[in-house]
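Hi there. Long-time user, first ticket. I'm pasting a complex I've been working with (about 873 residues overall). I'd like to know whether the download I got is complete or cut off, because the file seemed smaller than I expected. Thanks.
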Amino acid sequence: MELLGKALVIGLTEHAPLVLAALGFALLYRLTGLMNVAYSETVTLGAYFGMWVNTTFGWNFYAVLLPAGILAGLVSVATYFGIFRPAKRRNVGNLELIIMSFGLSIFLRHGLQFIFGYPVRFYDVPPPDTIRILGTGVSSFRLLGLVSLAVVALALYWFIQHSRLGLQIRALASDENLAQASGIRPLFVTVLIWFIAGVAGGMAGAFYGVGSAVKPLLGWQLFLFILLVVLVGGTRGLGGVIVTGACTGIALAGLSLHFGQALYAQLALITGFILFLKWRSRRVAETGKV
Amino acid sequence: MSEEAATRPGRPVIRIQNAVKRFAGRVVVDIDDLVVGDRPIEGLIGPNGAGKTTLMRMVMHSTSLDQGTITLYPQGQENDRAVVLSDLPTYRMARHGVVKSNQVIMDFEKLTIWDSLLLASAAAKYEHPHRIFDEPAVFAESADEIHMYLKLFGLGDPCGFASSAGDKKLLDIIRCVLLKPRFLLLDEPTAGLPDATTELVMGVVRSLAARGTSVVIVEHDLDVIWNLSDEVHFMAEGKVIMKGTPEEIRAHHTVVEKYLGEGHV
Amino acid sequence: MNLDWLDAFLVYGFFAVVIFTGLAVLLHLQLGLTRIANFGVVGFFGVGMYGFGILYVRVDWPFGDPWQFLVCLALGTLAAGLAGAVVGWLISGMDTDGMLVGTLGFATAVYIVATTEKEVTGGAQGMGGLRFPYDFDSLSVKAHEALWLLIAAVLVALIFLYAWRVHRSPYGRLLIAIGSNEPLARSLGKPTFRTKLWLFAITSAGMGMLGAVYGVYERFLRPTNLGVDITLAAMVGLVLGGTARVWGALVGVVFTVGLFDIVVQSYLPLPREWYQQTIPVLREAVFGAALIIMLLFRPLGMLGDMRRDKLMRRLHGE
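Hi, the file is complete. Here it is re-exported in full:
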């Protein structure tokens, strides 16, 4: 029981950014059908941009979030115009698109190392107070982070599910031709989605960066979990992604405490998720057009 | 079809029992009890959306059944040997002799005509990772038969790729024949083929049937059905609502015209 | 034997080209023919490398080299093959997205195990004790390495030859058929799932064997050897040369790994300090960019698509 409480508190506060990152990825995945490996670099970029603004201009972390998100969003849009849009026009296949995004991910990651140097970097933030919840010590900073993350994630969810633009986004995702016929500007909405996904990824990255350290592999190490959360939870819509993401965070924290080793927790979760995907793929096996 | 060939005992038969398929809640196929294959060539006709193609895909188990069973009796229903097709994966069908041609054009875009046909006729024992020197054996076993069909249908250079839609359609049918089917399902085999080629295809189907293969054919060109079939099943709204010789079906002017439009009888 | 003319970096450069050509050829069978997306090449490479290393170093064998080496190599290869069979079973029925997750997840799992199981793998500090399975007292280290390069080259040549034969066999035809239209192949009675699973297991075993051979050259195994750069190098080589062609693997790796690990390392007059960090980072960035540019402008690579028509004419033409 104590373990459960601890897992709940640590999991939610520490891994809350995972939910936001997964939301952004799920949005993009649903619209484009593309497993964009380079999304992991959007997360990393957000962490670096935030760190850069924070340490250069001395801005408070929460003030940094917005520029970090917007810059990451702009990079995301730039990759759309620079790579994925031309690729789609040239009818590049799905598998090739994934390999391209893999290449882009590697390119951006090492480009970052060129610009920001090789050592691990940190945000410059005041040391936080510790608050006890359910018998577990949590830094006030992480708690505030959780609240703000929840606000951002819910705002995003509301925007997609209930706003007029969100309706257009969902329409475009489900049927491009029909959406076009009903007067939606596909380019505008598509760019909007790439931007929002980038902003979500970038903000998640900033949260991860300030929670621990900023390093070029930050997004890549997270990417597998983003992928798993979206593939497992995504079939039930964005709500499913939020729930799966939160549960994954809690499970990661709980299993880490149980095994006393965070890597074991990751191993167990990766195995579990992939077995679940296998089980599900068997259930829905419909063998195609012959 | 001669009389003794039609009544010969031990013809492969497929029995479809209580088979239901729904797509998004709509019942597409709902067959109570249907036996096909008693006669050498049986036609399956009906309006668009009657569930003909879906039924054929259910037999191949490339579309799963919501409920029901489909059973193959390789030597007729009197014989005890029975294979429950609806329990088998698609790839096992060919080994039991159940083969289907495709309504839409299906091709291996990277494979030449030779490739495509050798693939169909190659025995499974040759297709293992360690058998990398067996191309001559496969070729020796099947080249004559393939050559025969290439010549019959006048297909172009077999070292090249099938270019036209008609060639691809023919290739699909030849692949089916090369699999030595005991039970052949043809889904609009002559759609888009010129009349002369249609005749050739019908000739091949007839000779297969004469050698003991049971054939079920779905076709929009009803002339093909009236010419070829020994028995016709009329399907509408997922059910077989009528069955009989071509003459009997044609006698039901009202029903056929209601579903298929005037001028089809 | 006088090997003064041979730079130690040069031996490594050629060794890298040989190993990655082998990996790219195996990836060609998976990706180019059968369209199985493997983003976890390094995982199978790592299972072979660590499997071999652990058996070689930690187990007290009653016989010495070369038998010790050969037995461990066989077992390491087998381990990678088994891993390939398990992952193959997981992903063979999935679409490309599922394959990405499955193979990436496997590679991550291998990395995690190599890091956490300190008693066996040496953890992050790594594991020493590997050596060349021969000892000629008179020879220098460099000569030993050159000999190892030769052995690796023979091994990769055999893999290459195998892939070349596969193109000319009924088996290869089946692989291509599955890659271009799996449902149709299934309807022709081909057990596509089983075929994919076996192909994946065998090619993964090959990757594992190359991992073991690589491990012997490195002599010290660390989890950092299991980075995504291994997968990247094999993939960029294959894509650049042409995924659909056996020769594509060789040509592509020569132009990518060869360019950086031989030409840049040994022949360009660059400042010494660049080689520490700048060149490796630049190498990865260029590889990433090459993947994008190639797939955007010439998706079939330098050599283009496979030419079954020409091949068939040679094999069965009049």
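A couple of notes from our side: Residues 1-8 of chain B have pLDDT under 50 and may be disordered. DSSP finds nine helices and ten strands in chain B.
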